[in-house]
Amino acid sequence: MDIATLVFSALYQFGDAFAFLVLSACGLAVIFGMMGVINLAHGEFIMCGAYVTAATVHAGLPLPLGILCGTLASACVGVLVELLVIRHLYERPLDTIVATWGLSLIATQGTLIMVGSTMAGVGTPFGSFQVGAYSYSIYRIVLFVAALAVLGALYALFNWTRFGVLARATIQVPHMAAALGVDTRLIYSLTFACGAGLAGLAGGLYAPTMTLVPTMGATFIMEAFVTVVIGGADVFLGTAPAGGILAIVKSGMTSWQGQLFGQIGLLIAVIIVVRVLPKGISGFVLRERT
Amino acid sequence: MTGFLGLFRRLEGPQTLGRGPAFWALFALVLAGALAYPLFSDGYTVGNTVYFFVWVFIALSLSLIWGYGGSLSFGQTAFFGIAGYGYGILTINFGASYGFTWIALLLAIGMAALVAALLGYFMFFGRIGGVFLGIVTLAVTLMLERFMAQTAGPEWRIGAARLNGFNGMSAMPPLTIPWFGGPIVLFADVGLYYVVLAMLVLVYLALRILMNSSFGNVIVAIRENPERAEMLGYDIRKYQLITFVIGAALAGLSGVLYTVWGQYITPSSMGMTAASLPLIWVAVGGRSDLTATIIGTLVVLSGFQALTIYGSQYALVFMGVLLVLTVLIAPNGLVLGLITWVTKRVARRKQETA
Amino acid sequence: MALLQLRDLNKHFGGLHVTNSVNLVLEQGEIHCLIGPNGAGKSTLFRLILGEHHPGSGQIWFADEDITALKSFARIRRGLSVKFQVPGVFKGLSVRQNLEIALQSRLHGAALDKEIEGLLAFLNLEAEQAQLAGNLSHGQKQWLEIGMAISLKPRLLLLDEPTAGMSPEETHMTGEMVRRLNAAGMTVLAIEHDMAFVRQVAQRVTVLHLGQVFAQGSIDEIVADERVAAIYLGQAHA
Question: Fewest C-beta atoms under 10 Å: which of A89, A124, B182, C152?
Answer without folding.
Answer: B182
